[in-house]
Design brief:
Layout lengths: L2 H37 L25 H15 L8 E7 L4 E6 L4 E6 L5 E6 L1 H10 L5 H39 L1
Antiparallel strand pairs: 1-2, 2-3, 3-4
Helix pairs in contact: 1-3, 1-4
Amino acid sequence: MSNNKIIKRIRLSRVWHRWMGTSLALFLFISASTGILLALKKEVNILQPPTQKVTNLENVAWLSIEDIKEKAENAFYAKYPLQKDNTIDRIDFRPQKGIAKVIFEKRDWEVQVNGYNGDVLSMAQRHSDLIERIHDGSIISDGFKLISMNLLGIGIILMIISGLWLWYGPKRYRKLRRRRD
């Protein structure tokens, strides 16, 4: 490859790298900052309530899913009567800890229930779920999530390739120039 071609490719890579970096900067900042928060969610109680633990009782069976659901709903609606329209999204079972986390659809409420006797151990909001939706773009829509995450991934790959060329290209140019001199 001639020196002129190398110089043209380096200049073009600088332009591409600059525009790509500028275009991706906001998305990368949001993704990186929310990623840091998600990495800390188990360490910071305000992001996600700490997982409770109960002593495992020998030969005691877990309550049924319906019983756990009922205990969580009764406790939640008693404490927050204006949330009656907030239905259960999922139940996350933690057999090793003896609890079930009952997570409601709206505003990310979580009720932790003792899986053996139905006692409510904790009731709080999970801010980590909102942070996760911001992180992956699903806070806007699932379509936006699919498009934005793919574009972000492709953009990062192109930034790596152009960045490597911006590092290697000048070295190659100098090496070729030294040979000719």
